[in-house]
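step=encode ok
step=design start
structure_in=
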């Protein structure tokens, strides 16, 4: 699929529907169809009054805003004149209520160690680390890289940055040293916070060693703070590297939250684009927080006695919005788990659910497919009756996986919220509301209040029901990205130039006769591996950086567990490839990008199919990688024999 070829054929026909349980509807945050319709219409017709009221009611302001929204998309500013602080909203305001003694973070390490931080404990630790950052010379607006395992110090560091107005840039622990260096440089980070390592499937992931390698290529970084997590051997460079526990020792637990402008940058999060280097998606203070806060209430129906668990890694947007900011702003109790789902065995997640009586469970289709493969005997060993709501995010969920989730984990009792959103959208955009929306397996249902999507052709014409096209947003929303760090032109051209007057970030979709949206995946050269967006272009550059490789084309193919797997077509400068070279190249890509980009297949070819203008025709390669007969138009192909050769090579 390409943007030029915007008609997308939909083959999925799913007719089952599931009504929300009556008991759920009775006490849900949004509890009637009329209420939803009224909210949605009002948000569309008068977004300023809709969002303005919510911002006043649900956020704390040091100084109230003068106006709700100014300027047309994409240059919309929100809550001008207002002063607030995200860390204050997530912590301090709860300390004035009974929540101060409530568990904020319920953490479990992979080896089985546990820590519970009440709101007052989390507040204390955040204040202390914020003071440490200040001592290290971090000022409002400075960038801080967080490259950490899933331990409480990650949440603490995020909120400490937010407290003093420093901008965090979190890099998922699965990325390699080179990826860390690239991101350090793009963000011009001054500080890196990391750990000696973290636990993943019984093995230590050595984060500090990767930071050491990245430091040679990260000239802007002055200091490295290291949490002792695994106790593994690390090199500490004098005057550059400091242990977290040494730094916080004796530091005051008082640190006023800085009164920040509503549009002060909160964080940068790098995500893959179809071309060039990763994009530093920038989110700002008040609009982002309002989105995370309201969507958590609407979609997860958070209640005071819930135990909420989102299994994502904080290195991705899901963890930013739905482990840290959304739930903590609402004063929820959040479960956080460090390690792998199948360690020491495939029942670990369900053991955690039972142990902490998790009531809301939010995961990804790729995880659900792994659970299915491991078998229902694992969840069946545990009492899952505490769960009242299930969620999924990251990629389209196939109806079979949805049904399994519904029957085996939800025991046919729990609504499932299939939440569509993106790094760029900051928060959930399209999702069932658990108290009122009848769900259809595989559909993310309807837009939340304030979200005005459409499905259009390349020239912006709205499509009829059941016609596949491009999913766009016609109106701005408070939690949308504000820019790409350091490249505002790329921001405008990537998201706002494709379809006139609309936001477009690359997904195809259709809307059925009931107005339900069915997302059909990405239309650009980005593949979705286990719910993580990877740019085929980055994997290609990693391959080409190997001395033996002349050219490469990388495409996704359907993969039972990962959703999409990575298939690499490689032409060599000289000679032919063998199994040994496959291993070498796989290792090379892992070193360059990280384990998450591990190629599933590498195929050597004498040539790649190209258009006369020299563009690699990836759509043809996609068919070959998937083992499909191609029905694609090959009239623009320069040399047909290349394609025949690739097909003949198929095992
Ligand atoms: C895909 C993750 C179908 C989609 C929050 C989107 C989904 C990309 C869904 C964003 C869903 C996410 N149904 N597809 N419920 N949720 N996607 O930026 O292609 O890591 O554009 O944000 O994931 O991925 P990102």
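sequence_out=
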């Amino acid at each position: 699929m390409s943007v030029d070829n915007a008609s997308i054929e939909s083959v999925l026909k799913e007719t089952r529907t599931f009504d929300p349980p009556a008991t759920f509807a009775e006490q849900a945050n949004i509890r009637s169809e009329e209420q939803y319709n009224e909210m949605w219409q009002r948000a569309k017709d008068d977004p300023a009054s809709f969002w303005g009221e919510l911002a006043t009611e649900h956020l704390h302001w040091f100084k109230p805003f003068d106006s709700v929204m100014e300027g047309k998309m994409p240059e919309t500013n929100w809550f001008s004149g207002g002063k607030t602080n995200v860390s204050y909203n997530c912590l301090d305001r709860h300390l004035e209520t009974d929540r101060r003694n409530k568990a904020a973070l319920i953490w479990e390490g992979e080896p089985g160690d546990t820590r519970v931080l009440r709101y007052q404990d989390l507040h204390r630790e955040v204040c202390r680390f914020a003071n440490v950052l200040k001592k290290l010379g971090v000022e409002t607006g400075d960038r801080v890289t967080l490259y950490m395992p899933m331990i409480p110090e990650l949440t603490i560091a995020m909120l400490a940055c937010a407290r003093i107005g420093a901008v965090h840039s979190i890099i998922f622990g699965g990325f390699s040293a080179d990826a860390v260096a690239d991101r350090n440089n793009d963000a011009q980070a001054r500080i890196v916070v990391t750990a000696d390592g973290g636990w993943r499937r019984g093995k230590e992931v050595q984060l500090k060693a990767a930071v050491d390698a990245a430091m040679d290529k990260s000239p802007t970084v002055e200091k490295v703070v290291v949490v002792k997590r695994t106790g593994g051997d690390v090199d500490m460079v004098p005057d550059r590297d400091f242990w977290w526990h040494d730094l916080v020792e004796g530091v005051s637990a008082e640190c006023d939250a800085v009164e920040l402008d509503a549009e002060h940058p909160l964080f940068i999060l790098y995500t893959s684009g179809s071309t060039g280097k990763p994009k530093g998606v920038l989110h700002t203070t008040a609009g982002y927080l309002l989105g995370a806060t309201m969507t958590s209430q609407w979609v997860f129906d958070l209640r005071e006695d819930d135990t909420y668990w989102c299994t994502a890694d904080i290195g991705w947007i899901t963890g930013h919005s739905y482990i840290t900011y959304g739930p903590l702003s609402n004063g929820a109790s959040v479960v956080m788990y460090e390690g792998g789902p199948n360690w020491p065995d495939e029942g670990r997640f369900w053991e955690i659910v039972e142990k902490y009586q998790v009531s809301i469970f939010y995961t990804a289709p790729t995880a659900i497919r792994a659970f299915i493969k491991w078998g229902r005997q694992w969840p069946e060993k545990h009492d899952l009756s505490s769960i009242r709501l299930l969620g999924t995010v990251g990629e389209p969920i196939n109806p079979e996986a949805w049904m399994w989730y519904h029957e085996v984990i939800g025991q046919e009792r729990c609504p499932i919220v299939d939440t569509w959103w993106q790094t760029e959208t900051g928060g959930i955009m399209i999702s069932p509301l658990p108290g009122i929306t009848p769900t259809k397996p595989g559909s993310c249902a309807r837009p939340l209040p304030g979200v005005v999507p459409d499905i259009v052709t390349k020239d912006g014409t709205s499509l009829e029901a059941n016609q596949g096209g491009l999913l766009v947003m016609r109106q701005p929303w408070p939690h949308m990205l504000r820019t790409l760090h350091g490249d505002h032109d790329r921001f405008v051209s990537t998201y706002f130039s494709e379809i006139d007057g609309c936001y477009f970030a690359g997904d195809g979709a259709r809307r059925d006769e009931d107005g339900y949206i069915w997302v059909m995946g990405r239309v650009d050269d980005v593949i979705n591996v286990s719910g993580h967006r990877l740019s085929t272009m980055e994997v290609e550059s990693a391959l080409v950086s190997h001395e033996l490789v002349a050219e490469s084309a990388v495409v996704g193919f359907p993969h039972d567990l990962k959703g999409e797997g990575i298939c690499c077509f490689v032409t060599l400068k000289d000679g032919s490839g063998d199994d040994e070279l496959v291993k070498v190249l796989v290792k090379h890509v892992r070193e360059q990008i990280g384990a998450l980009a591990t190629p599933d297949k590498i195929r050597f070819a004498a040539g790649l199919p190209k258009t006369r203008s020299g563009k690699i025709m990836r759509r043809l390669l996609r068919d070959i990688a998937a083992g499909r007969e191609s029905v694609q138009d090959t009239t623009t192909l320069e040399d047909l024999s290349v394609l025949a050769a690739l097909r003949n090579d198929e095992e």
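step=design ok
step=annotate ok -> The longest helix spans residues 119-135.
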